[in-house]
Write a structure and sequence with these properties.
Blueprint: H1 3-6, H2 11-23, H3 46-53, H4 67-79, H5 83-86, E1 103-105, E2 108-110, H6 126-135, E3 137-138, E4 142-143, H7 146-154, H8 161-172, H9 196-208, H10 210-213, H11 239-247, E5 248-253, E6 256-261, H12 269-284
Antiparallel strand pairs: 1-2, 3-4, 5-6
Helix pairs in contact: 4-8, 6-8, 9-12
């Protein structure tokens, strides 16, 4: 529960959420027992954590900014709680001062959202960012997966275009921070210096992946299958690429369900590592050899 973001909600919106929840059909589902071990099962200790990390204040509009900017700030910081995934954590697991510089949460990388042109959203057009937030895909930038796909499917795609535009305005204003992977473009001859592992992955990609993604990464019949330009195929750490290859991902769109199956039961760890190494080299111009251990469950 990201209550350190929800503390920014105004009373009217908090009560509206309560009214909706109270309108749902009651279910007799007892809460599970606390299974945390000492000292994390000591709730009183949260008093100190909250003192350090929970501002406990309501959103205050910035009079120096436009109404659209303030609306976008409220949606992004409070209701959207975007910083909870996209901002690095401190040693106490509070949010660091590097707001929106990107972070890894539950095995998925939430990418840099600042205005940095290489690491963040500075190289995106307003149209690309609007499309990504509304549909989970952006031409030339790839598609949402994992928790971000869930955010689009269950929340963002229902928002009005006016509110999406407000979020874009606010995100555009975030100070640039040069941190995290850089989305690369394909090299002119992407396969000229493949490692032995990536060369093996090239054959596996042709057999298992090219049918949907196409050899050039444009995606067959659907931009949700596009790989070219995506952060995930340029990230040397390959966090999201590994997650998708192993477990798959899905996203409900206005045109049907975009679905990528997981391959952990169809291919060995060595084969998945070879595919990942090839994808990074071919589409992301990133010479990183992924180890089979990355695909251990």
């Amino acid at each position: 529960m990201p209550y350190t973001a929800y503390t920014l909600l105004n009373d009217a919106d908090a009560l509206a959420i309560k009214a909706y929840l109270f309108s749902l059909k009651p279910e007799n589902a007892p809460a599970p027992q606390n299974s945390l071990h000492f000292p994390f099962n000591q709730r009183w200790s949260m008093m100190f954590w909250n003192w350090l990390n929970n501002p406990n204040k309501r959103f205050q509009p910035n009079p120096a900014q436009s109404e659209q900017w303030n609306r976008g700030a409220y949606l992004t910081e409070a209701l959207g709680h975007c910083s909870q995934c996209h901002t690095p954590r401190t040693i106490t697991y509070g949010l660091s001062s590097k707001a929106y510089a990107g972070a890894v949460q539950v095995g998925w990388r939430a990418y840099n959202l600042t205005s940095d042109k290489q690491h963040g959203l500075g190289g995106w057009t307003d149209e690309q960012l609007t499309s990504y937030l509304s549909t989970g895909k952006a031409s030339g930038k790839g598609a949402a997966s994992g928790p971000m796909a869930e955010a689009v499917e269950h929340g963002l795609r229902y928002m009005t275009q006016t509110d999406i535009a407000a979020m874009v305005t606010y995100l555009r204003s975030l100070p640039p921070i040069a941190q995290g992977p850089v989305a690369q473009t394909m090299a002119a001859d992407p396969d000229h210096a493949l490692s032995e592992t990536a060369r093996r992955g090239q054959g596996l990609f042709a057999q298992a992946c090219a049918g949907c993604h196409l050899p050039d990464g444009r995606g067959r019949q659907s931009e949700w299958a596009a790989l070219a330009g995506a952060h995930s195929v340029s990230d040397p750490a390959a966090d999201n690429l590994e997650q998708v290859l192993r477990d798959g991902t899905a996203l409900e769109t206005g045109q049907g369900r975009a679905f990528m199956p997981g391959f952990s039961k169809a291919y060995t760890e060595e084969e998945l590592a070879a595919i990942a190494s090839y994808v990074l080299a071919h589409f992301g111009n990133t010479q990183t050899e992924i180890k089979p251990s990355a695909f251990k469950n």
